[in-house]
Amino acid sequence: MESDLRKGRCQPCEGGVSALSAEAVEAGLRGLPGWQVVDGVLRREFHFNNFYETMAFVNAVAWIADREDHHPDLEVGYNRCVVRYSTHAVGGLTDNDLICARQVNVLLA
Length: 109
Prior knowledge:
By secondary structure, the chain is of the alpha+beta class. The protein is 41% helix and 18% strand. Helix 3 (51-68) packs antiparallel against helix 4.
């Protein structure tokens, strides 16, 4: 699955797409170090040295979100950012959430 996520691009998910099963989410998490599912939402907290680095990261995440047309919830502080993904249209997690989380991880690789 990790190779699929690495090459994957988000697909529109209104209508006809189901949320991933718990097993599929668990399998997807194996390729996403640092991410966890909390209350049905894919979540990771990132820490930085200062506000400038935090905002550079936030802007890069925003660029990914715009390109993929799949937008996370962001909680931003001086030296930290919490990124949360879920697919509201299906009421759960989809491949889009895993794909975007993988792309966010690549930012800091």
